[in-house]
Design a protein that fits this description.
- Among the domains are: 8-40; 64-98, no CATH class.
- Strands 1-2-3 form a three-stranded antiparallel beta sheet, with helices on one face.
- It is mainly alpha-helical.
- The protein has three helices and three strands.
- Helices cover 42% and strands 6% of the residues.
- The N and C termini lie far apart (45 Å).
Length: 105
């Protein structure tokens, strides 16, 4: 049974992808908020005022963001929107968390 023409079905598929992307971005922002709440007083307050995700930073016209997660080299630092940890780049030192066994997602 056919429910839509080829053009309409492609349009519906694209709309579905947009909705999925929006949902995933909202989840990333919520997770970043939870991560950052655990880091209050352990990282510079300027980091906590940065955008939550790369998409959030782009919306605000910023180039840096802080999710509150560690990079692959275990640094806890802001990222550039083009995908780089500032500590890995040598631009800022990694934050030292008082409880090193604290798990951040």
């Amino acid at each position: 049974m056919v429910t839509a023409c080829l053009e309409c079905s492609k349009e519906l598929q694209v709309e579905g992808v947009y909705a999925k992307n929006d949902r995933e971005e909202a989840e990333r922002r919520e997770q970043a908020k939870r991560n950052r709440e655990q880091l209050i007083g352990q990282v510079p307050s300027t980091w906590l005022r940065m955008p939550l995700t790369d998409a959030h930073a782009r919306e605000l016209g910023e180039v840096l963001f802080f999710r509150g997660t560690r990079c692959l080299r275990n640094h806890l630092a802001p990222y550039r929107i083009n995908g780089g940890c500032l500590a890995c780049a040598g631009q800022v030192p990694s934050a030292v968390v008082t409880n090193p066994h604290q798990e951040l997602i």
